[in-house]
Write a structure and sequence with these properties.
Elements lengths: L7 H14 L4 E10 L2 H10 L6 E6 L5 E10 L2 H14 L4 E2 L1
Antiparallel strand pairs: 1-3, 1-4, 2-3
Helix pairs in contact: 1-3
Protein name: DUF493 domain-containing protein
Amino acid sequence: MSVTPNSEEFYKKLKSQLHDTALWPSEYLYKFIVKTDTSKIVQVESIFDNMGAVINTIESKNGKYTSVSVNLVMKNPDAVIEKYKEVAEKVEGVISL
């Protein structure tokens, strides 16, 4: 599921699903895809700096794209959505899964 920046309908549905499926604070796994470019990967990582996040990156077979997985404890669904919006705003061309 890809997300277009500022897709309020998507965020509203996500917030509802997060409320229904987890007790907060809860561990959450973000997944992003960016073009394989060190600066873009660093941009995503820097958004989660000093939050205790475990970040893994996997380059695609052809090396054109990189998957960035970010696992961390978030305090509530609003905090989860805030980070999605921040990544969409700051990292050009990012795909959120």
